[in-house]
């Protein structure tokens, strides 16, 4: 059974199989991986049937083509629902996409850096390249006249690695009192001011949405192209994903505020995104998995280990696909399909992950270079969440997250 998951994930052996064996033994219940594999196979079958395909008589390329066609139809329909007339017109669609998100009842609260502190840091270490680009001689003048959310995001485009590394050292001095609770903001960067310095980002990422975790800002980056194929379903899932990401790290920073090296923890998290928030049966578990697992619980089951700083509402999340259903019920096709895929004859999965398929559609990716990144990330997360559902492994995680933090290496772990 482990072979199916290993192939879907392109996981390294023998580490992967040994890790699953460890989780199986530690959970005290066998067959968690087998049940997941069976569920994925059933979802693939249902997904094909909903596309009008015969599961036993459909080629890999036909399936991929049908998924792209489904995204095209969905994109055109959602475009009309939010008031758009031209599904590829960037100038028309970007404001409508943002307006649609902001009209939705989504929890956008986050615990992030105060804007006043962000300005103070930039005054301490002025971003001279950005100042020159915008035509300012003094950092005070720039911060007085420019949107700090735009400026702060533009730093990654303008300043270069050496400046950013020095800024990270400065950022290590931040304290919990430098953070505040406010809503995530969505900003459309000024096209004239930033399109040239953001060009490399758009070319590299093949999309124009980014976010700044520590500021709680999602940014639509300007680009030279006036048209983008399938921009609605390219942008909406990314925006919803980044809302979740900002709230994810907001909760993590809240949890870590009791530690002496808070600033260093924040910087290390922003730079390297370490996946070692805890250990479960000898396997490192990313905070993303922990947050999503406990976020599915009802408020009355909120673990004491998160108190007093992390509250039930900090952990609540919805998959991007679930948020899209709030806009358009017909998007339900993609719900709970983010970790679903099947191996093709060329050794690469065909995924039902909306973000992978919508990005592939927008970028006109052929079958041979289809995307699997978001699918694999989702499948990894799903595997760990399934095992965390066993009470003894859940308790192991909670012991590590308790405010009286114990070292993961001190936990008893079964040897493979």
What would you note in describing this structure?
The structure is a single chain. By secondary structure, this protein is mostly helical. Among the domains are: 1-38, no CATH class; 89-322, no CATH class. The protein is built from 20 helices and nine strands. It has helices at residues 2-9, 15-27, 32-50, 60-81, 90-102, 115-124, 128-134, 139-145, 148-158, 160-171, 191-194, 199-205, 231-256, 262-272, 287-295, 312-315, 320-327, 354-362, 373-388, 391-401, and strands at 109-113, 179-183, 185-188, 209-212, 217-220, 278-280, 283-285, 341-343, 349-351. The strands form four sheets. The chain has a three-stranded mixed sheet with strand order 3-5-4, sandwiched between helices. It has a two-stranded antiparallel sheet with strand order 1-2. The protein has a two-stranded antiparallel sheet with strand order 6-7. Strand 8 (341-343) and strand 9 form a beta hairpin. Helix 13 (231-256) packs across helix 18 (354-362) and helix 15 (287-295) packs across helix 19. It is globular, with a radius of gyration of 22 Å. Mean pLDDT is 87; it is low at 403-416.
């Amino acid at each position: 059974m482990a072979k199916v998951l290993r192939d879907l994930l392109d996981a390294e052996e023998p580490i992967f199989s040994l890790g699953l064996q460890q989780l199986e033994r530690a959970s005290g219940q066998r067959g968690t991986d087998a049940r997941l594999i069976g569920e994925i196979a059933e979802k693939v079958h249902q997904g094909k049937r909903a596309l009008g395909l015969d599961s036993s008589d459909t080629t890999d390329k036909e399936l991929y083509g049908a998924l792209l066609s489904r995204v095209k139809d969905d994109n055109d329909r959602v475009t009309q629902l939010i008031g758009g007339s031209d599904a590829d017109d960037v100038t028309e669609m970007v404001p409508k996409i943002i307006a649609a998100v902001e009209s939705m009842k989504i929890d956008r609260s986050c615990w992030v850096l105060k804007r006043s502190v962000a300005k103070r840091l930039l005054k301490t270490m002025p971003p001279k390249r950005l100042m020159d680009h915008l035509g300012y001689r003094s950092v005070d003048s720039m911060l007085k006249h420019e949107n700090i959310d735009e400026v702060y995001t533009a730093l990654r485009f303008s300043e270069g690695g050496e400046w950013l590394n020095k800024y990270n050292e400065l950022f290590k001095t931040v304290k919990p009192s430098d953070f505040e609770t406010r809503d995530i903001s969505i900003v459309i960067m000024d096209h004239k001011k930033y399109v040239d310095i953001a060009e490399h980002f758009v070319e590299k990422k093949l999309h124009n949405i980014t976010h700044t975790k520590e500021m709680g800002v999602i940014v639509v980056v300007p680009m030279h192209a006036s048209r983008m194929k399938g921009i609605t379903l390219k942008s909406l899932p990314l925006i919803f994903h980044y809302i979740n990401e900002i709230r994810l790290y907001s909760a993590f920073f809240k949890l870590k505020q009791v530690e002496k090296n808070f600033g260093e923890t924040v910087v290390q998290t922003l730079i390297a995104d370490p996946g070692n928030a805890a250990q479960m049966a000898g396997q490192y578990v990313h905070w993303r998995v922990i947050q999503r697992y406990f976020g599915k619980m009802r408020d009355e089951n909120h673990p004491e280990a998160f108190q007093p700083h992390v509250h039930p509402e900090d952990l609540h999340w919805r998959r991007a696909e679930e948020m899209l259903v709030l806009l358009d019920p017909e998007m339900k096709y993609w719900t709970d399909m983010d970790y679903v895929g099947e191996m093709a004859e060329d050794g690469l999965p065909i995924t039902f992950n909306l973000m992978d398929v919508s990005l592939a559609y927008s970028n006109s990716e052929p079958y041979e270079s289809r995307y699997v990144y978001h699918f694999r990330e989702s499948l990894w997360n799903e595997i760990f969440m399934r095992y965390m559902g066993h009470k003894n492994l859940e308790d192991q995680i909670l012991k590590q997250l308790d405010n009286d933090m114990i070292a993961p290496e001190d936990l008893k772990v079964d040897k493979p």
